[in-house]
Design a protein that fits this description.
This protein has a single domain, classed as outer membrane lipoprotein receptor (LolB), chain A. It is globular and about 55 Å long. A twelve-stranded mixed sheet has the order 7-8-9-10-11-1-2-3-4-5-6-12, covered by helices on one side. By secondary structure, it is α+β, with helices and mostly antiparallel strands. The chain contains four helices and twelve strands; from the N terminus they run H-H-E-E-E-E-E-E-H-H-E-E-E-E-E-E. The chain is 22% helix and 42% strand.
Length: 244
C-alpha cells in the first residue's frame, strides 16, 4: 500500500512538472487532504510536541524559546495539555463544560466556562485569554482550504527523513510567510514537523514544531479530563486580553 501511494504521488508530481500553469501541486494537496481525513476520523489521540519561536533580544538578536507539550484529546469535547517552558510547568483541562489551567510553580489555578466542543473552546480561550494550543491548526477540517487561501503557491518538495521517519515534505508560500510541513509516509500520514518563516521581519524569524509519540484512538478515561484542585492551592481570576 505504501509503495502504491508513493507511485501515485510521483505520477502526480511528474504531471505537475508538465503543467506549470498551476501553482498548487496536486500531490501536495492530496497528501494534505489525506492527513486531514485521518485526523478528522480519529476519536481520540495523544502526542508530544517540542516547539520553538524566535524573539528579538536587544543584545543578542533573534533568540529561540522552547516549549514542550504533551496533549491528550478525546472527541468531541475533552482535552488535557501539559506545558513545560520558560514560564514553568502548566497544565490545562477541558471537560466539555469548563476550562481550567493550573500553574505548578505558583500553585494556583483559574477556571472559566467554555464552549461544548474542542475547536470552539480553542478559539474562545485563545481569543479571550491569549493561550496558544499546540498544533491546533491541523485539527480544523478546513486546514487544506485555509492553506490554499492564505498562500500563493504550494509545492511537493519530495521525500525527506525527520528523526528517523520518512516524510513527505510540502512547502507553501504566501505574501508574508512560508510554511513547511513534513507528513509521515506511513499508514496514518500524520504531521511530523512544521516550520513557519515570517518574511516581513529582518532575519526572517521562525516558529517550529516537531511531533512525536503519536497514539491513535487510545482508550482515555473520562475522569482524566476533570480538574480537581490539588490541596494547598488557591483559585485566581483568569485575566482576559480585554483586561490587559
Amino acid at each position: 500500500m505504501k509503495e502504491m501511494f508513493l507511485c501515485v504521488l510521483w505520477m502526480i508530481g511528474g504531471w505537475k512538472l508538465q503543467a506549470q500553469d498551476s501553482l498548487y501541486n496536486p500531490a501536495a494537496i492530496m497528501i494534505l487532504d489525506r492527513m486531514s481525513d485521518v485526523i478528522g476520523d480519529m476519536t481520540s489521540c495523544s502526542f508530544k510536541t517540542v516547539a520553538s519561536h524566535d524573539d528579538l533580544d536587544p543584545q543578542f538578536g533573534w533568540v529561540k524559546h522552547m516549549v514542550t507539550t504533551q496533549v491528550y484529546m478525546k472527541g468531541p469535547d475533552k482535552m488535557v495539555v501539559n506545558y513545560w517552558g520558560q514560564n514553568g510547568h502548566r497544565q490545562c483541562w477541558y471537560d466539555g463544560q469548563q476550562f481550567a489551567i493550573f500553574d505548578y510553580e505558583e500553585k494556583n489555578y483559574g477556571m472559566v466556562a467554555a464552549p461544548s466542543a474542542i475547536l470552539p473552546m480553542i478559539d474562545s480561550i485563545h481569543t479571550h485569554f491569549g493561550l496558544d494550543f499546540p498544533a491546533a491548526d491541523f485539527f480544523y477540517p478546513a486546514f487544506t482550504d485555509d492553506l490554499l487561501e492564505s498562500n500563493d503557491r504550494i509545492d511537493f518538495v519530495g521525500i525527506s527523513v525527520v528523526d528517523g521517519h520518512e516524510c513527505f515534505q510540502i512547502i507553501a508560500r504566501g505574501k508574508t510567510s512560508t510554511t513547511q510541513i513534513w507528513i509521515r509516509n506511513d499508514a496514518f500520514n500524520l504531521p511530523m514537523k512544521y516550520v513557519i518563516t515570517d518574511l516581513t521581519k529582518p532575519g526572517y524569524p521562525q516558529y517550529e514544531t516537531t511531533f512525536s509519540e503519536w497514539q491513535v484512538n487510545p482508550d482515555l478515561p473520562n475522569a482524566m479530563f476533570n480538574f480537581l484542585p490539588p490541596p494547598g492551592t488557591h483559585q485566581v481570576r483568569l485575566m482576559s486580553t480585554e483586561d490587559k
